[in-house]
Write a structure and sequence with these properties.
By secondary structure, the protein is an alpha+beta fold. The chain contains nine helices and nine strands. The strands form two sheets. Strands 3, 4, 5, 6, 7 and 9 form a six-stranded mixed β-sheet that branches. Strands 1-2-8 form a three-stranded antiparallel β-sheet. β4 and β5 form a beta hairpin. α7 (226-241) crosses α9 (266-279). The longest helix is centred in the N-terminal third of the chain and has 17 residues, at 4-20.
Length: 282
């Protein structure tokens, strides 16, 4: 059995060597998971990156905040706060996205067979149960993109298991496509339409049609904050067209369909519509 001190020295030596090559590294605890946040950073109290939703290095002197702790700063890696962690570490990990890499983690023989049939050859590293296929380029990380296949790149970590064999190739579109969210199927939803009774502001039917078309375009053109965009658009449509009785269920179905093409569920659409009506006192 390897003596714990020897294991620590080996891990630290490996980490320093990888960091010198520009690979952001971090120690993994028993169970091959990142070290828990220190007391000063627990439960977001430090105001740093404990929620791990934004990329960037952790500023804590200890290996906190999971993948965000990964660094290639030799002074940090060999500092007292990190040395305490290396004494307990089970293995060395790295942040693929921070090194400009994507790891396709193949967890079993079936996944490996699929990769050999589907993906371009690249650098390959054997794992306990399967293989890591490493590509040059970054992308969002995701687990379970297909049976036995995880993607580890931005905001994730992978164990260092050696350089493997082969030469890394450019990240192919077939891998990027594995994490593209498919839009929810468009389903008709019954929603309450304002009964009307207010003064009609529409100079012609074309005015209302133009307003609905612009609202559809605003929703489908959203690239971030889709939930908020849908709500604001519903609110704008209702405030302009919702009190006179000209707004019909057909108009609402068009807006709901636009939202669903951006990945919104029928329930999200219904909730946003109801919240907008409530905000306007309808």
């Amino acid at each position: 059995m390897t003596h714990p001190a020897t294991t620590r020295r080996d891990h630290l030596s490996t980490a320093l060597r990888l960091a010198a090559d520009g690979l952001p590294v971090l120690p993994l605890h028993k169970g091959k998971v990142p070290f828990a946040n220190c007391p000063d950073c627990l439960y977001t109290s430090c105001g740093g990156r404990p929620n791990m939703k934004t990329p960037g290095p952790c500023q804590c002197p200890r290996p906190c905040h999971g993948w965000a702790a990964a660094t290639h700063d030799v002074a940090v890696i060999s500092s007292s706060g990190w040395v305490a962690a290396w004494r307990q570490a089970e293995c060395v990990a790295y942040h693929p996205g921070g090194a400009g890499l994507t790891v396709v983690d193949l967890d079993n023989a079936d996944a490996i067979t699929w990769a050999r049939r589907t993906l371009p050859l690249t650098q390959t590293v054997p794992t306990t149960r399967g293989q890591h296929w490493i590509y040059q380029g970054t992308m969002p990380s995701a687990n379970g993109v297909r049976p036995g296949v995880d993607i580890k790149s931005n905001m994730s970590y992978a164990r260092w298991l050696g350089p493997g064999t082969g030469t890394g190739t450019a990240l192919p579109d077939v891998v990027r496509a594995l994490v593209v969210k498919k839009p929810s199927p468009i389903r008709p939803v019954t929603v309450p339409v304002p009964a009307g009774g207010g003064e009609c502001p529409h100079r012609s039917p074309a005015y209302l049609e133009r307003g609905i078309t612009m609202a559809e375009q605003q929703i489908t053109g959203a690239t971030i904050g889709v939930h908020a965009t849908v709500y604001r658009t519903f609110l704008a449509v209702l405030s302009t067209h919702g009190r006179c009785g000209c707004l019909t269920a057909t108009h609402m179905q068009r807006l709901f369909a636009a939202a669903q093409t951006k990945g919104e569920s029928p329930r999200h659409c219904t909730d946003a519509w109801a919240n907008a009506r409530t905000a306007l006192g309808m």
